[in-house]
């Protein structure tokens, strides 16, 4: 969507709206009163110590996890137990995990065309053309006929990103996409993510790559013990953190 599509008076669309959302794992209160609005085209980085609920939060956004109270509205669709809503949201939200999660017995191209063919009913030929388009975008079209096991970790993660893009998502969620990679492969994945951000994709990224946060994030959100403790533009977040917990965290990772 270009700027001219929206009348100047219209409020910016919320891609994701979370209001007073709570989640428990059994008796364990893992997410507490989460309020978060992500505008269309916005890039958010979520940081915070291990166990603070970052993965759980983004998994709630495409209903890989269920919340128990409050609201989550994704692109206008409220997440409830209605399976049609869940399907709709999953088709609009792509997710990239730490451990790639590619199908090892399928080629790169087949990994990318599987869901478009079987879920979207896209004709094979068209799905393959689209897959090649996105494999070129992540700069590995030459690997299309290899199996994931023949690729480096960085290449596999770029396939995972291309595979998500093949479903034409409106929002992309990343859960520590570089933390399983050897250092020399981190940059190629981050570069792919930066290009995606520059293309206007709405992105929510759990990552501790603070260079990435500073390069592309509109806001950084810091979580601790199931709460959003602080959110700010990167510059202020890094140079002038408001809370003691953020300060402590930054002193450990920077
Ligand atoms: P983060 O991604 O910030 O490391 P998680 O969202 O993975 O945090 O986990 C938050 C807390 O919830 C942790 O204490 C974790 O042990 C717990 N947890 C995560 N998944 C489950 C689960 N399926 N069942 C019970 N507890 C869980
Ligand atoms: Mg996690």
TrEMBL record:
GO molecular function: ABC-type amino acid transporter activity; ATP binding; ATP hydrolysis activity
Protein known as: ABC transporter ATP-binding protein
DNA damage in keyword set: no
Organism of this sequence: Paracoccus contaminans
Keywords tagged on the record: ATP-binding, Nucleotide-binding, Transport
Name of one Pfam family that matches: ABC_tran
Protein family per UniProt: Belongs to the ABC transporter superfamily.
CDD domains membership: ABC_HisP_GlnQ (cd03262)
Domain ABC transporter: from-to ranges: 16-250
């Amino acid at each position: 969507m270009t700027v001219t599509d929206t009348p100047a008076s219209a409020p910016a669309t919320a891609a994701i709206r979370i209001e007073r959302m709570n989640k428990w794992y059994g008796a364990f209160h893992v997410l507490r009163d989460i309020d978060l609005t992500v505008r269309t085209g916005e890039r958010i980085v979520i940081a915070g110590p291990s166990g603070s609920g970052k993965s759980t939060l983004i998994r709630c956004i495409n209903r890989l996890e269920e919340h128990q109270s409050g609201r989550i509205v994704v692109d206008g669709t409220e997440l409830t137990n209605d399976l049609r809503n869940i399907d709709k949201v999953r088709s609009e939200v792509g997710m990239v995990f730490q451990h790639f999660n590619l199908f090892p017995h399928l080629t790169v191209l087949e990994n990318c065309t599987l869901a478009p063919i079987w879920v979207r009913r896209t004709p094979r030929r068209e799905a393959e053309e689209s897959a090649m388009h996105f494999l070129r975008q992540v700069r590995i079209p030459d690997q299309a006929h290899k199996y994931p096991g023949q690729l480096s970790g960085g290449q596999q993660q770029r396939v995972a990103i291309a595979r998500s893009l093949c479903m034409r998502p409106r929002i992309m969620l990343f859960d520590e996409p570089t933390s399983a990679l050897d250092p020399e492969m981190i940059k190629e994945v981050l570069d792919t993510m930066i290009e995606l951000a520059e293309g206007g994709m709405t992105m929510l990224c759990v990552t501790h790559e603070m260079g990435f946060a500073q390069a592309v994030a509109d806001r950084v959100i810091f979580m601790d013990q199931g709460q959003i403790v602080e959110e700010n533009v990167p510059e202020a977040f890094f140079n002038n953190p408001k809370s003691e917990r953020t300060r402590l965290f930054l002193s450990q990772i920077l």
